[in-house]
Structures are given as C-alpha cells and as structure tokens.
Design goal:
mainly alpha
C-alpha cells in the first residue's frame, strides 16, 4: 500500500503544474475546468467498470458526493478565472489560504480538532506567504477580481476538504472520485452551455494542455490527494498543499517567465518550515 505521505507528495507535484498550464493556454477558465474534470472522468471510468468498483452508494452518501462535485467544480473554475486576472503564483498563494478555513471548519464540524502545533504551523506558513508576496503587495491589494476570486477559491476548497473527509470515511476512493467527477463534469458543462463558453475548435497544442490537465492534474493528482485525505488529517493535508505555491512559482519562472525573487525564495522556505512543524509530532 502506498505511504500516505508519498501519495501526498505525488499529488502536490501533479497539481502544481496546473496554474502554469492555465496561464499559458488561451482557453476560457470555465471551459478549461470542464475539460479537466471530463477528461479525468472518461479516463477513470473504464478502469472502474472493468474492476467492477462502480456501485450505487448508500443514500446517506448521495448528498456529500453531489456537494463535493459541485464544490470542486466551482473551485477549479473560480481558481482558473483568478489565474487569468492575476498570475499563476499569486493566485496559487491566495487560494492556499485554505488551511485557515479548513482549521476553522474542522473546529466547528469535525470531531478531531486542530491542536496547538497545527495552529503554530499555520502561523509560520502564513508568515511565509506574506514574506513571499511582500508586505507592500499584500497591503495594497484592493479586492480586485483576481484577489477576490483566489480567496473565494480557497474557501470553496476548504469546504470541499471537510465534506470529502466525511464522505471518504464511508466510501472507497475510486468510486467516490468517479461519481464526484461525473457530477462536476455535468455541472460545469451546463455552465459552459448557459454562458456560451467555447468547447471546441481548439489548436492541437491547447488540446494537449487540456489532456495533461485531465490526466495528470486531475486524475493522478486528486486520486493521490484523496488517498492522503482518507489516511491523514484534513488540516495537515491542506497545509501541506501550501508547498504547491513554491513549486508553481518555480515552474512559472521556468516556463512562462514569471519573476521570482530572493524574497519569494525565502518566503517559500518559511512556508515549508511551517508544514514541517505540523508533521513533527507524528514523527516522534
């Protein structure tokens, strides 16, 4: 069985390339979100059918599955839009404020409450985010579209984490993923049709990017992350996703010429230190 922490690392790397792909490809954020879900869905479906893992879930799971599908689909679409309105690194950082919302949500809705070490790690990680962004940039954000959408994406993702944690405690990962992705695909397709978003006539390079988003960022990334969520604390998984901002910043610098400074490097190291604090207790 795959070690949950290794699974978490694979998941983080897989989803870290997503913001760079979204920024690079000239595709509507909502259309991109639909194809990410739909391609992941159609790739996973044959495996589920062949292995006979698809079964009718208990009635108590229908609402969480539908809620997760809508929440995750909305999160990806909103995140895509925030990337278009700002840049890959900033949108990823603001979206990854989700540990704050997960911690608060866990305090109210989950039986296992965040401990002092989690909040200390969160404080250190958030400090790293402020260093990475720069205090001037942080204080001068005037709730523009990119800022609001990125923060909203973080809230949506935190809600998804809490709801999926409950659902995964009663369901296996693969059946949960295929049904949740199916709901997301239908939901996002309806939005695309209602808004008149483009769904075809893309270039071969754009189709290649959409396939990578669906197979690597969605299928591989979220199967491994869902496994980590099932086996680990939702708060720690969410906080570990802060490292995604560091990886995304590096990839954005390498592939789409986004500027990366010494301050950003230092901020990234502080973020990783915060994540390390949350795991220290488990290692003792």
């Amino acid at each position: 069985m795959l070690n949950p922490r290794i699974s978490l690392v694979i998941g983080v790397i897989s989803i870290s390339i997503f913001p760079v792909l979204v920024k690079w490809a000239p595709v509507s954020g909502i259309s991109s979100a639909f194809y990410r879900m739909f391609i992941g869905f159609i790739c996973l479906l044959p495996y589920v059918l062949i292995t006979k893992q698809l079964s009718v879930p208990a009635k108590s799971l229908w609402l969480p599955i539908i809620a997760c599908g809508i929440l995750f689909g909305t999160d990806i679409a909103v995140w895509n839009l925030s990337i278009h309105y700002s840049n890959a690194t900033q949108a990823t950082l603001l979206t990854n404020l989700s540990p704050i919302w997960v911690g608060v949500g866990s305090f109210f809705f989950l039986s296992r409450k965040p401990d002092k070490r989690f909040w200390l790690g969160t404080a250190v990680a958030i400090t790293g985010m402020i260093i990475l962004l720069g205090t001037d940039t942080f204080t001068q954000m005037r709730f523009d579209k990119g800022f609001v959408l990125a923060v909203l994406s973080g809230v949506l993702y935190a809600t998804y984490m809490i709801v999926s944690k409950r659902a995964l405690s009663q369901s296996k990962i693969v059946p949960f993923m295929i049904m949740s992705m199916g709901v997301s695909s239908i939901y996002l397709l309806l939005i695309c049709l209602l808004r008149g978003e483009p769904l075809w006539n893309f270039s071969s390079s754009v189709w290649s990017v959409l396939v990578i988003q669906g197979t690597i960022c969605q299928l591989l990334g979220w199967l491994t992350l869902s496994y980590a969520v099932q086996k680990m604390d939702a708060q720690r998984v969410s906080l570990s996703l802060l490292s995604q901002a560091v990886i995304t910043a590096l990839m954005a610098w390498l592939f789409i010429d986004e500027h990366i400074s010494l301050r950003m490097v230092l901020g990234g190291l502080v973020i990783l230190s915060g994540i390390g604090i949350t795991f220290r207790k488990a290692a003792v």
